[in-house]
Design brief:
Layout (H helix, E strand, L loop, with lengths): L2 E2 L4 E4 L3 E7 L10 E3 L3 E6 L2 E6 L10 E5 L2 E7 L16 H107 L6 H11 L45 H16 L18 H13 L3 H14 L4 H13 L3 H14 L8 H17 L3 H14 L4 H20 L1
Parallel strand pairs: 1-6
Antiparallel strand pairs: 2-3, 3-8, 4-5, 5-6, 7-8
InterPro entries: CS_dom, CS_DYX1C1, Dynein_assembly_factor_4, HSP20-like_chaperone, TPR-like_helical_dom_sf, TPR_rpt
GO molecular function: nuclear estrogen receptor binding
Pfam families: CS
Length: 426
């Protein structure tokens, strides 16, 4: 049975009621107070205070202050009036029960309305946030499109300028060629005249010589550069055709001659040169990319920077696009295997390391470092999958390539101990 609290004090004005309820030694929180427009309840088990108010109050603006073992209520009246008492007098149990149920029902209705209002407000906030995000994304899209359009215009202008320069150069070459042909024809004519002159008598008569001198003089007293009296030494001979030979310095490898693998090294260099030229330019994704983004080497450097900052997923994406552009470069698979190791994609790490080893053939000193990394990364993936025998094989293969590597030797020794321990347990 609850203990009813009968001790309280109250006073009023025309617009408010001030109620003081002592609860010494009890811990009270706002959850212990229930108030509607005509019902007030304070429940602190085992104590209970209940009041059916004389007239309706404004339960929204009314307040309750808890402190020093007292609850001080400030209840604002809906209508300005002086109450005869704080609670209803001479009310039957049925009326009080009805008022109590009505207060609970109103409280539930109010709570439901507040919940719905919060839900609507939350949806409005989400809608506003979505609209704001869409506006930002639209602005960013427009900015990117504007940058692309400016870049296209810039490239178009550069292309047009190049075409004009190319046309001007072709025109100039054509003019020079025509001029060279004219000079060549004049030289031939001069040589023919010279031959005719040599066929004639070497001592001409006076009339003939005077006539020739008058004929070769110009209107201003100058002589033609191709006149018959021109000395042979004054005219340069035509340039003769020739073949230019270019010799390249042979590539020198650090391998001693007695251990030379020149054929394998030349094959490796030939494969690398072919791999550099094998670029797939028919991908639909390339249409929206910049020129540098279509370069596998640029994408590889980008992936390396992402890997260095710990953004392994972005690095994998960069290597993926680079491999789609050129699937013949072993370093792309080798670097992507390192990313898969960090992301715990162990089977993919094994696949990429195996692909890199497949492309790193024939084995030469120039690719020994890459082959060591490929064996170590594949061996690490095998060991993390608890396939220690396969992992040890890769580590031993790496040691055959680089026998002085102490770090690989230590890891291989650890794997041997793990294999021994596993065999003893079994």
């Amino acid at each position: 049975m609850p203990v009813w609290l009968q001790e309280y004090s109250w006073r009023q004005t025309g617009s408010a009621v001030y109620l003081s309820l002592p609860l010494r030694g009890l811990r009270v929180s706002p959850a212990n107070i229930f108030c509607t427009d005509q019902y007030l309840k304070v429940s602190v088990p085992p104590f209970l205070f209940e009041a059916f108010l004389y007239a309706p109050i404004d339960d929204v603006n009314s307040t309750a202050k808890i402190g020093n073992g007292i609850i001080f209520f400030t209840l604002y009246k809906k209508e300005v009036a002086i109450w005869d008492s704080l609670t209803l007098a001479n009310a039957s149990k049925e009326e009080l029960q009805y008022l109590r149920q009505d207060a609970v029902l109103k409280a539930h209705t109010k709570a439901k309305e507040e919940t719905e209002a919060k839900k609507v407000k939350k949806q409005e906030h989400k809608k506003y946030a979505l609209e704001a995000t869409m506006k930002l994304e639209e602005a960013e899209r427009l900015r990117i499109e504007d940058l692309k359009e400016k870049e296209r215009q810039k490239v178009t202008k550069e292309l047009e300028l190049w075409q004009k320069q190319h046309q001007a150069a072709e025109k100039q070459n054509k003019v020079q060629k025509e001029l060279h042909q004219e000079v060549h024809q004049e030289v031939q004519q001069f040589n023919e005249k010279k031959k005719e002159k040599n066929n004639k008598s070497r001592i001409p008569n006076e009339g003939t010589s005077k006539t020739r001198l008058k004929h070769t003089k110009g209107c201003h007293g100058s002589y033609s550069m191709f006149s018959e009296n021109l000395n042979e030494e004054q005219l340069a001979a035509p340039r003769s055709a020739a073949t230019i030979k270019i010799n390249f310095t042979s590539r020198v490898f650090p391998t001693p001659l007695r251990e030379s693998r020149v054929a394998e090294e030349e094959e490796w260099l030939h494969k690398q040169a072919e791999a550099r030229r094998a670029v797939s330019a028919d991908l639909s994704e390339l249409e929206d990319l910049k020129e540098e983004e279509k370069n596998p080497d640029w994408l590889k450097d980008k992936g390396n920077k992402m890997f260095a900052t710990g953004n392994y997923l972005a690095a994998v994406n960069a290597y993926n696009l680079a491999i789609r552009l050129n699937n013949k470069l072993p370093l792309l698979y080798l670097n992507r295997a390192a990313c898969h190791l960090k992301l715990r994609n162990l089977h993919k790490a094994i696949e990429d390391s195996s692909k890199a080893l497949e492309l790193l053939t024939p084995p030469v000193p120039d690719n020994s470092s890459a082959r060591v990394k490929a064996h170590v990364r594949r061996g690490t993936a095998f060991c993390q999958l608890e396939l220690y025998t396969e992992g040890l094989q890769d580590y031993e293969a790496a040691l055959k390539i680089d026998p002085k590597n102490e770090a690989i030797e230590k890891d291989a020794e650890k794997i041997r101990h793990l294999i021994q321990g596993t065999n003893q347990d079994s």
